């Protein structure tokens, strides 16, 4: 289960306070694995993921499900290509914006996939478990 620090934060003018949900989630991908555990996107409309420096050449795709314990399937765009973060650095850690198409999902897993955009091939991440930080904002 991912660790989470979900909270509400007041932002905006004093007279018209806006309450926004924010959360920081830590996820793990097992050694030789290709997906993380799931995190809950229900309250959020934007976010970023901190990709580790130990990432092996691959894109970061997403598997989604309407329940936390259900069967996760690939998130595809309107032409059937996996939604993904391309050209993830393999030489240093870095923050990447989560794609807009992700925010309609309820539960999400990060997925290590082939660097070829239309390919749906898993890429195993080796060298020990990898840790990811996901920062979300409602």
Keywords:
single chain; 138 residues; mainly beta; 6-stranded antiparallel beta sheet; 11 strands; 0% helix
Give the topology:
Elements (H helix, E strand, L loop, with lengths): L2 E2 L2 E5 L6 E12 L9 E2 L5 E6 L7 E7 L7 E2 L9 E2 L8 E4 L9 E7 L16 E8 L1
Query: What is the residue-averaged pLDDT?
Result: 90
Low-confidence stretches: none
Largest sheet descriptor:
6 strands, antiparallel
Shape: globular
Query: SS-based structural class?
Result: mainly beta
Radius of gyration: 15 Å
Distance between the termini: 21 Å
User: How many H/I helical runs?
Assistant: 0
Topology as H/E string? Answer: EEEEEEEEEEE
Tell me the fraction of residues in β-strands, as a range: 35-45%
Number of strands: 11
Q: Which percent bin holds the helix content?
A: under 10%
Any overview of this molecule?
The chain contains no helices and eleven strands. The protein starts with a strand and ends with a strand. 26% of the residues are buried. The protein has strands spanning 3-4, 7-11, 18-29, 39-40, 46-51, 59-65, 73-74, 84-85, 94-97, 107-113, 130-137. The strands form two sheets. Strands 1, 2, 3, 5, 9 and 11 form a six-stranded antiparallel sheet that branches. A hairpin with a 7-residue loop joins strand 6 (59-65) and strand 7 (73-74). The protein is globular, with a radius of gyration of 15 Å. The mean pLDDT is 90. It is 0% helix and 41% strand. With 138 residues, it is an all-beta fold.
